[in-house]
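Predict structure. Input: Carboxymuconolactone decarboxylase-like domain-containing protein, 176 residues.
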Amino acid sequence: MTEFVVPTEQNISDKDKKIFGEVKGLYGKVPNIFAAFASSENGLENYFNYLTQKSSLSDREREAVNLIVSQVNQCQYCLSFHTAIANRLGFKEEEILNIRANDISFDRKLKTLVALAHNIAMTRGRIAGAILEDFYEAGYDQGHLVDVVLAVGNIWTLNLLYAMTNVPIDWPKVYV
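Output follows.
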């Protein structure tokens, strides 16, 4: 397999250099998986716009979706990256492991969100049982459902890119 070369700030467009600056502001550095998008003339801009879109989900809820979908897809890069971000957002290590296992007892509402995201990832959107009903009963609405689908699509994009590029993991490694 040909090694995927991660673009650096020295060999990207001015437009992508500006986005690198914004990414650094969010994460303290440009993660390799984000730099990989700069291989495409519009890839980084398109992904960054997708990432930073407004959502009815909180940052913690989005990170929970990121963790469970990355677990389903067995994406070591994304599990490592999103574990670090979840820690920054105040999740405890045990809570992160519970989210990844789809076994949450510390937050009923978050439990329904993670169950839904897990089911979407496992079944490609063919919701099983009472998962959607539980999601609505927990206080979510149709707008939240759309935002969960967007969040799943967002992390799935990262999972796919990592699976095909195997860029070096530049976060403390978490194992699948």
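Residues 9-51 form one domain.
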